[in-house]
Amino acid sequence: MVNKETAIILFVLIMLSFAHTVKAVGIGASPATLSFILNNNSEEKTFQVSTNSESAVSFTVKISDSLKDIIKITPDSGETKINQPAEIIVKASAPKSKTGNYSGTINIKTLPTTNKAEEGTGSQVSTGVVVKVNVEIPEKTESSFKDKFISLLTGRAISGQEKLSTGWDSMIPILIILGAVLIVALVILYNKIYNRGQKNEKGHTNNFFYFNFIA
């Protein structure tokens, strides 16, 4: 009859025999969260998949259903091993019909591998990691005359954040320039109407660009 001590020893030996046939392979992703604000319709970011395994580990990459219309991944599978992380490109694009905030995950999962024991048996091991994704698609509004005029002068588009932070104080220099241009235009127009066809002191016929104060 097997006593209690012998039973415990046999149980430990059995557990050890199973444990040596299974080898855990760790996998990680960095950064763990990706955030997009799609002011310009599309944006690209990357993350890296790494492992502690000295041999190559194959994996697949899938996006959750809530972001399938917004997020595209390249490539959707790959290999990595220790000190050789794999880079994944994530492109977020804003569909015309969607605005608001969206969230989901990118799921990275290793392909099952067989770790062979001495007698040819083994266990299939698969691990995974998740990258969180947040996407903000601002509501698109028609640019105002002010925004278009600033864009014309500066040669660049005004973003949504700049629209909120740009006050009318920034328009003062522009209004001064417009006022000066208007004054010059009125002076030219006055001289065109009042002096056209008349002769000045030197006997020259006044034309469009003639001013009374020019000798």
Describe the protein.
This protein is of the alpha+beta class. The chain folds into 2 domains: 21-137, Immunoglobulin-like, CATH 2.60.40; 141-215, no CATH class. The chain is built from 4 helices and 11 strands. It has helices at 4-19, 145-154, 160-165, 172-195; strands spanning 27-30, 33-37, 42-51, 57-63, 71-74, 77-80, 86-93, 100-110, 113-116, 122-125, 128-137. The chain has a 5-stranded mixed β-sheet, with no helix packed on it. Strands 1-3-7-5 form a 4-stranded antiparallel β-sheet, with no helix packed on it. Strands 9-10 form a two-stranded antiparallel sheet. A hairpin with a 5-residue loop joins strand 9 (113-116) and strand 10 (122-125). The longest helix is centred in the last third of the chain and has 24 residues, at 172-195. The protein is rod-shaped.
